[in-house]
Amino acid sequence: MQSTLVSFPDGALAGEGEVLLVDQRASIIVVDATPFHPVDHTWPDQPGDSGAITVGEAEVRVTEAVMAAISDEGALAVGSDIPVKRGGEGWTWMVGHRTEGAIPTGIAVGARVALTVDADRRASLSRGHTACHLASLALDAALADLWRKEIGTDPLGNPDFEGKANQSSRIHADGSVDEYRLGKSLRKAGFDSEGFAATLAEREARINETLAAWVASAGKSRIDVGGPSIVDRRTWRCALPEGEVGFLCGGTHVRSLAEFASISVSLDLADPQLLVMTTTAAAR
Question: Packing angle between helix 200-217 and helix 119-142, nearest 10 degrees?
Fold first, then answer.
């Protein structure tokens, strides 16, 4: 058995495949190839796609695509129950399709099925994910002068606040919420937390100006893939006025920044130890 072949990096919303496994108890269907993007079990920032699987007259609703893994001994693990990181040895990595209700008998091992992704949900999550990455880059740029020591840099060459402080990221339809820990370790690394707090409104305005300029540039966006399976490396790339940027990323994205009417953020420092950045995207 080989890892699931995926077509979502190319923007696919439909496909066909052969059913490899049906688990009625876990309400999971595994197919050899799928257009569904699954939520990652180790960094669950982007929710999995929803949609439907059909064969003949039988159809089942897919509530969310998830990561699944089958051990060399034949044990199935799904989502957070997977005991190793993606690509870990001794496991075959699959996309599991979590279903709503009982799985029809027509959808059985060996059947050829049609898979259809909810296009509106995919589009809104893709906008949310692209906006999340752009907001993190704009945040790094807006905070660049607050570092007293040199640290690693982001794809635009700014001090990598995102990489140093981000503790969680949750993408949703047309937006995201990111949390950054502003604790002792960040101050020891050279970040001026007090200066940041004193200029919060100015930093927010600077981020939003940058995002408005990037949206106006209508740069192209794409996903480069290292191979066709769910475990192969994928990199998001986007053309910005400052140059092309790229992140290792397993999610889905827009094809062009022209798909946005706007992207904006709000910064919340109600807890001085925790920055919450809420990103909101509007579709054109």
Answer: 130
